[in-house]
Amino acid sequence: MKKVLFILGSLLVFSQMLQASPHSCHLIVYSTKSLADVKKAQQKYLYSQFKRVAILKNNRDWFMLSVAKVDKKVEKNIVSRLKALKKIPKDSLCSGIEYPEIDVKNTTHKSNKQHQNIFSKQEQKTAVVKINQAITQYLASKETVNKLYNAINHSSKEILNTQNPAKKKVMQHAQLIKKIKESQKQLTHTYNDMVNIYTNNLDILKTAKGGKKIASFLKDERQDILVIIKKVAKINIQQLCQHQKIDCK
Hints:
About 55% of the residues lie in helices and about 10% in strands. The chain is built from eight helices and four strands, in the order αβαββαβααααα. The model is unreliable at about 1-20 and about 105-115 (pLDDT under 50).
């Protein structure tokens, strides 16, 4: 990339003349004083994974090639990732200055989205498959705990309503309690796995369809788990001892 570092000096000179965006920045991958050269460089990115490839121009007549508008909150992660994947040059940078865009025919793909998806379909697919598998495992664990909880409640009522409950019935009840304790630990484990996968693929999942809903889902499920943990903690064979249904001595 030719003389892209020159942009840094330009930013200081014109920072008071050009409006800076508080929330996003242009991902600049190329700069030159030749419009022909920047248009040539543009062709390399125009039909790639980058959906918005724009030519910008500063007050010193330097042309810059922007391939995306990136949210500043995730700027460092995205730029580092793209450089590591060799999808942008190592000296690429993200500029928060709103330079004028050059109106060149076929310069950009039309899009109404402010922040474009700059991850490949395969990357999105892999991340979505991982989080969906984690969610499926978590929901299965949650269903197991709920079923065991209902079974324990039913078993408790049967024993409490029986004058002399059979030893076998009491032992089965104790086994249910043991199982729900183990299942509750598994539920917590699958939830943590789900959170870790989401966190590790946050940038990609936020660009995927429905990805923004995952955060609220995780938050709601966290509250559910806390309720379940409290309910399971209260389950104890001592409840039957207190009602003198079994001999706990």
